[in-house]
Design a protein that fits this description.
By secondary structure, the protein is an alpha/beta fold. The protein has 10 helices and 14 strands. The strands form 3 sheets. Strands 6-7-8-3-9-10 form a 6-stranded mixed sheet, with helices on both faces. The protein has a 4-stranded antiparallel sheet with strand order 2-1-4-5, with helices on one face. α2 packs across α3 and α2 packs parallel to α4.
Length: 312
Amino acid sequence: MKYLLETKEITKKFGDYIALNKVSIRVPEKSIYGLLGPNGAGKTTLIRVINQITLPDSGSVVFDGKPLELNDVHYIGYLPEERGLYKSMKVGEQALYLAQLKGLSRSDARKRLKYWFDKFEIGDWWGKKVQELSKGMAQKVQFIVTVLHQPKLLIFDEPFSGFDPINANLIKDEILELRDKGATVIFSTHRMESVEELCEHITLIDKSNKILDGNLQDIKRTFKTNTFEVGISTTDKLSLQQELASKFEISNANFKTLEDDLKLNIRINDGDTSKDLISFLSNKANINHFVEVIPSASEIFIRAVKKNENKK
């Protein structure tokens, strides 16, 4: 696997406070990589190091196979959580200015901006001042400026902030399309449903330390608890629940209807298999539904952070 970006044992201190403690990540080329963690974990500091806004106290960054250089700013697009548009400038004038800072000529910038403004149906915003736009409108403009120079690496910090569901979905589709066209994306968010939809790989940082990383599906498999969601029909629900409780761990027991359907989460014991559970149930009831419970990104986030805090 080829990695577009690698950070190697990045450490950053602000006085006595350690913001990052030997954090290493490897971002696969042409992937969407989730950079996750609670508030104050160190995510934004790491992003600032990658963008050369902040220099690390120790460690190194490798970009596209070589040490990160100042000129690499032209190959990186960064959309920060705190937006930075000048409120009194006109939208088009500002977009042209920022595009030229990324190395585009004025004529190329104008052509690309016309394409994106037409695509987002915001051409009539060109002559408006940023202060006249809503937060969501300003977000669209800054998203365009971030991707305009077609960078190899895109870094989005809470890119859906301020968007209604329709426009959030529009931006999500654009991020996927940019990935499909060859861009590598680092995606930082607290919206775990977006992580589920977009990210192939993740890193979880907590209290300045990396506590989890890897392919998201592989991580989910390691966090499985041998729990199965089961829907069954029986005329003697109470008796069956008592038998199940004596052999397995059950939770979330509820009646699906007012009739005889019962829905349970059943955790099998070490040494048992799903076949053992199916065999047990089939002799007692009709099985209507049987699926393994796979932990969500949100559940993994909470469990990993709590485990890390308990180590302290």
